[in-house]
């Protein structure tokens, strides 16, 4: 645990040739240079320590420096450096079986390098599947507004956030979007459950109105993460599964963020009943960020159509480094640790006993809603609870900066109004200690009290 500290001069003083991701290139803003990590914490060049409250980019699930993972990687590299997955190697074979088992059996796994690639792979499989099973007109892919599915052009076309897309349009043809389950700002009246079910009804209406014979797939995260942590009622997910079944639409579940315990189940869709997606895509927590790896797990029913002998129906798709032996060995060790240390149950329990305390922040006028499932939390920030006007950008920046000064990194996203990111994101490593979680909750509370202490509407003790 660390004391509150003053941030010493953060580095990158010399001209840098590094093009930072998602960075506004403001010469006044110096990016910190991280040099060392331990558990959920990292240190910068000036010796400042930070708790990583967003697990890097929601991926550092087991934290820094797990010796067992490092050794598994080195051992694999020493044994077999590389073969492409046009052939086989043991780590890929074992990992594919393990993932199929975790998903409930009977899935075939295709490996790539990232979440974007895992989704691109899923889109191509869904389209080819329909082409070779008598439905060649099925090509459209539907996703929800506010969702994020990756940065490559297909995955970006499924991504329905204007601010991420507008400079790169036109999108790939054949992608369309529907209204998400977002009860807090819903266009529908009624309870959250009613509002979410109406959003599910829009999925069915869209399929019918587009022509069911043209729709290949529906892609969804169980909980929209990159678009402001939108958590639907479980009936929404169950209803969408039912709709996809009825219209022969491949249900692609994007578990890139929610997979491997983040939400208190091994996979996010497992919170719902009787949901068994046709395709499940994974990355991030698959290796806990130790090496890049993406996976696209496909139900046997679909895989069968790629198999017959003598036909040109194989999947013409390859990625040089997809399923790299070292990455697969790392993933296997990562999953072994998750199971051995009961990480999923731990997330479930600590989310209730510790992170749940963030709910109390709704006492501030500027906190419109706290949405949480497991170690995935979004605080929707508003100017005013009644109008729900998104909190001004400079105030959002102020929250993040104040947390950073106290040694806590948190994030923000949302795109509530295109380009306006008014949702605070908190997603600590799944192995965060109880002290880490207490530090996180206390620091955020402290910052809110410091910035908004005079704007309190309810008498909830902090
Ligand atoms: N899907 C979801 C839900 C994501 O949040 C992300 C990345 O944040 C991706 C896909 C893309 O993953 P990657 O950055 O590994 O390409």
UniProtKB/TrEMBL annotation:
Annotated GO molecular function terms are: pyridoxal phosphate binding; transaminase activity
| Tree of life domain | Bacteria
Does the record carry Protease as a key word?
no
Show the InterPro entries listed in the entry.
Answer: Aminotrans_3, Aminotrans_3_PPA_site, PyrdxlP-dep_Trfase, PyrdxlP-dep_Trfase_major, PyrdxlP-dep_Trfase_small
Q: Which residues cross the membrane?
A: none
Entry keyword set: Aminotransferase, Pyridoxal phosphate, Transferase
Q: Which NCBIfam families match?
A: PRK07678.1 (NF005812)
Stated family? Belongs to the class-III pyridoxal-phosphate-dependent aminotransferase family.
What is the name of the protein in this document? Answer: Adenosylmethionine-8-amino-7-oxononanoate aminotransferase
